Amino acid sequence: MTLIEEPVGPTPGEPVEPAPGARRQLPSFLVIGVLSTVFYLGLFVLARLFTDPQVANLIALAVSAVANTAANRRFTFGVVGSQGMVRHQLQGAVAFLIGLGLSSGVLALLDRLVPHAARPVEVAGLVVANGLATVARFVLLKVWVFRGGAAGPAGS
Fold first, then answer.
1. One digit per residue, pLDDT tens: the chain, 156 residues?
2. Is 149:19 a contact under the CB 8 Å cutoff?
3. CA–CA distances in Å: residue 97 to residues 15, 45, 79, 104, 137
4. Which of 76, 103, 100 is nearest to 88 (CA)?
5. Per-residue DSSP letter, 4
6. CB count, 10 Å around CB of 139?
C-alpha cells in the first residue's frame, strides 16, 4: 500500500489562508498604509533637499508604492511566493498612477495658490492626497489585483 502525502503549507502564489473578508483585511491594510505613508513622506522630505516638489513626489511615491504593494500582497491578502508577483506589481501600478495624479495635483495647486509653500504645507497637502489615494488603492487591490483575497487563477 502506497501513501500519498498532501503538501503541507500554502502553494506559492496561493493565499496563506482561505480568502479573508474585508473585516480581517482592513486592519492589516491600515497598518501597512500608515507605515507606507510615513515612509513616503520621509522619502519626499529627503528628496526635497535636492530636487523640486514634483520630482521628489515621483521618487518617493514610486519607491513606497512598490513596497506597499509587496506588503499588502503578503500581509493583507495572504499571497506568498513569486507566482503572480510581477502581475500584481503591474496592477498595483494603477493605484500608483492614481496616487501620483492626486499628489501631483495637490502640489501643482499649492504652487499656484501658495508659491514657495513651506515644507509642512506641502506635506499636509500630500497627506490629504494620500488619504484619498489609499481608499482607491484598497478597492483596486481587493476587487481587481487580489480578487477578494486570492491571487486569481493559477498562471494568470
1. 444 444 444 555 555 444 447 778 889 999 999 999 999 999 999 999 999 999 999 999 999 999 999 999 999 888 999 998 999 899 889 989 999 999 999 999 999 999 999 999 999 999 999 999 988 888 888 888 887 554 443 333
2. yes
3. 26, 20, 23, 10, 10
4. 76
5. -
6. 11
